Amino acid sequence: MNVKGWVAGLSVVCLLSTGAEAAGCLKGAAVGGVAGHFAGHHAVLGALAGCAVGHHRAAVQRRQDRQQQAQPEQDDESQTKM
After folding, report:
1. HEC sequence for 54-73
2. What is the DSSP letter of 41?
3. Cα–Cα distance between 54 and 31 in angstroms, integer?
4. Cα–Cα distance list, 7 to 11, 20, 50 (Å)
5. Which of the ends of the chain has fewer CB neighbours closer than 10 A, N or C?
6. Are 10 and 48 in contact (CB under 8 A)?
7. Is the dihedral of CA 59, 60, 65, 71 positive or negative?
8. What residues have CB less than 8 Å from 81, skipping those under 6 apart?
9. CA-based nearest residue to 5, from 58, 44, 51
């Protein structure tokens, strides 16, 4: 299968995914596409890698945000028991 076929298939998958699952992908794809273009005209590969990295970083950020939100609730409970 040629590169255009892969890009078309990946585009369809990205369009069918929900917005919550694509968090960070667009920003990462934009940065990766530009970096890939300047690193030897591999914009599509850079965009794919950037999307994966951006999605991963968004998931890590979401997890940290949830932990920080849960932390104050635990501190409030421990202060009321004293």
Report:
1. HHHHHHHHHHHHHHHHHHHH
2. S
3. 9
4. 6, 22, 14
5. C
6. yes
7. positive
8. none
9. 44
